[in-house]
Amino acid sequence: MHDYQRRFIEFALEHDVLRFGEFTLKSGRTSPYFFNAGSFDTGSRLSALGGFYADAVAAAGLEFDVLLGPAYKGIPLAAATAVQLADAHGRDVPWCFNRKEAKDHGEGGLFVGAEPRGRLLVVDDVITAGTAIREVIALVDGLDATVAGVVVAVDRRERGTGELSAIQEVERDHGIAVTSIVTFDDIIEYLQETGRFAEHLPAVRAYRERYGVA
Ligand SMILES: O=P(O)(O)OC[C@H]1O[C@H](OP(=O)(O)OP(=O)(O)O)[C@H](O)[C@@H]1O
Ligand SMILES: O=C(O)c1cc(=O)[nH]c(=O)[nH]1
């Protein structure tokens, strides 16, 4: 694990973004941990979060034309990443987000912000079973655009529909590069290294055994 990954985990723990307990996920799985990006709930926290994303995008060397934040939680994440790419990396990139319901008055449409065209880099919070990412791929189908990459804070490294991880499936089926700030393995390593939240480690390991990939 890199130092910035350790700092990111501590940053998430400090603001109760990363929590341990019992949580029902979108996939229906019951997880012993949860990453709630919505709890980065002040300007400075969102700014710092955007900094982690922007650094991950820059480090991965991902080629893209437009950032896309899927509704809902992807929206502030894409915005914060765009701000930090401009301020800290000197890259003023277009960004946009979608509405969950198309709007038929005013400016109308499904997308807000820059036109989603060319190579899109999707900015979201986590990947679990990969449903949300597949929804975005379907959303841009028919546009003059392709999803070229995905960046998330946490790759939960869980199985998708088969034995591969959700990310491996998305990479295999759509040729999309996926990058994350941290993975579930980094979180487990952090718990082991520091002895923090030791009471949750058995449930975390059992979950990894049940839903994780090798
Ligand atoms: O990989 P998956 O199994 O799809 O799970 C992960 C997705 O689930 C949640 O989104 P949700 O649809 O709840 O949307 P929200 O952003 O509106 O909270 C979360 O924000 C991820 O995007
Ligand atoms: O799979 C999910 O629904 C999910 C997992 C997680 O850690 N955080 C989140 O917001 N959603």
UniProtKB/TrEMBL annotation:
<keyword id="KW-0665">Pyrimidine biosynthesis</keyword>
<comment type="subunit">
    <text>Homodimer.</text>
</comment>
<dbReference type="GO" id="GO:0000287">
    <property type="term" value="F:magnesium ion binding"/>
</dbReference>
<dbReference type="GO" id="GO:0044205">
    <property type="term" value="P:'de novo' UMP biosynthetic process"/>
</dbReference>
<keyword id="KW-0328">Glycosyltransferase</keyword>
<comment type="function">
    <text>Catalyzes the transfer of a ribosyl phosphate group from 5-phosphoribose 1-diphosphate to orotate, leading to the formation of orotidine monophosphate (OMP).</text>
</comment>
<dbReference type="InterPro" id="IPR004467">
    <property type="entry name" value="Or_phspho_trans_dom"/>
</dbReference>
<feature type="binding site">
    <location>
        <position position="103"/>
    </location>
    <ligand>
        <name>5-phospho-alpha-D-ribose 1-diphosphate</name>
    </ligand>
</feature>
<feature type="binding site" description="in other chain">
    <location>
        <begin position="124"/>
        <end position="132"/>
    </location>
    <ligand>
        <name>5-phospho-alpha-D-ribose 1-diphosphate</name>
    </ligand>
</feature>
<comment type="similarity">
    <text>Belongs to the purine/pyrimidine phosphoribosyltransferase family. PyrE subfamily.</text>
</comment>
<dbReference type="GO" id="GO:0046132">
    <property type="term" value="P:pyrimidine ribonucleoside biosynthetic process"/>
</dbReference>
<dbReference type="Pfam" id="PF00156">
    <property type="entry name" value="Pribosyltran"/>
</dbReference>
<feature type="binding site" description="in other chain">
    <location>
        <position position="100"/>
    </location>
    <ligand>
        <name>5-phospho-alpha-D-ribose 1-diphosphate</name>
    </ligand>
</feature>
<feature type="domain" description="Phosphoribosyltransferase">
    <location>
        <begin position="52"/>
        <end position="159"/>
    </location>
</feature>
<feature type="binding site">
    <location>
        <begin position="34"/>
        <end position="35"/>
    </location>
    <ligand>
        <name>orotate</name>
    </ligand>
</feature>
<feature type="binding site">
    <location>
        <position position="128"/>
    </location>
    <ligand>
        <name>orotate</name>
    </ligand>
</feature>
<dbReference type="InterPro" id="IPR000836">
    <property type="entry name" value="PRTase_dom"/>
</dbReference>
<feature type="binding site" description="in other chain">
    <location>
        <begin position="72"/>
        <end position="73"/>
    </location>
    <ligand>
        <name>5-phospho-alpha-D-ribose 1-diphosphate</name>
    </ligand>
</feature>
<protein>
    <recommendedName>
        <fullName>Orotate phosphoribosyltransferase</fullName>
        <ecNumber>2.4.2.10</ecNumber>
    </recommendedName>
</protein>
<dbReference type="GO" id="GO:0006207">
    <property type="term" value="P:'de novo' pyrimidine nucleobase biosynthetic process"/>
</dbReference>
<keyword id="KW-0460">Magnesium</keyword>
<feature type="binding site">
    <location>
        <position position="156"/>
    </location>
    <ligand>
        <name>orotate</name>
    </ligand>
</feature>
<feature type="binding site">
    <location>
        <position position="99"/>
    </location>
    <ligand>
        <name>5-phospho-alpha-D-ribose 1-diphosphate</name>
    </ligand>
</feature>
<feature type="binding site">
    <location>
        <position position="105"/>
    </location>
    <ligand>
        <name>5-phospho-alpha-D-ribose 1-diphosphate</name>
    </ligand>
</feature>
<comment type="pathway">
    <text>Pyrimidine metabolism; UMP biosynthesis via de novo pathway; UMP from orotate: step 1/2.</text>
</comment>
<keyword id="KW-0808">Transferase</keyword>
<dbReference type="InterPro" id="IPR023031">
    <property type="entry name" value="OPRT"/>
</dbReference>
<dbReference type="InterPro" id="IPR029057">
    <property type="entry name" value="PRTase-like"/>
</dbReference>
<dbReference type="GO" id="GO:0004588">
    <property type="term" value="F:orotate phosphoribosyltransferase activity"/>
</dbReference>
<dbReference type="GO" id="GO:0005737">
    <property type="term" value="C:cytoplasm"/>
</dbReference>
<feature type="binding site" description="in other chain">
    <location>
        <position position="26"/>
    </location>
    <ligand>
        <name>5-phospho-alpha-D-ribose 1-diphosphate</name>
    </ligand>
</feature>
